Amino acid sequence: MIGATESDVAIIGVGAAIPERILTNAEISQRVETDDAWIRERTGIAERRIARDDQTVTDLAIIAARQAIERADIAPAEIDLILTATASPERSFPSISALVADDIGAHSAGAIDMLAACAGFAYALGHAIAQINSGMATTVMVIGAEVLSRITDWDDRGTCILFGDGAGAIIVRKGAAPTSEKVVVELGVDGSKGFDLYGDLTPRNGEPLDKCIRMNGNAVYRFATQVIVESAKRVLEVGGYTQDDIDLFVPHQANLRIIESGVERLGFPSERVVITLDKYGNTSSASIPLCLDYAWRTGRLQPGQRLMMMGLGGGLAWGTVMIRWMGAPA
Ligand code: UT7
Question: Considering only CA atoms, which residue is closest to atom 41 of ligand 1?
Answer without folding.
Answer: 34
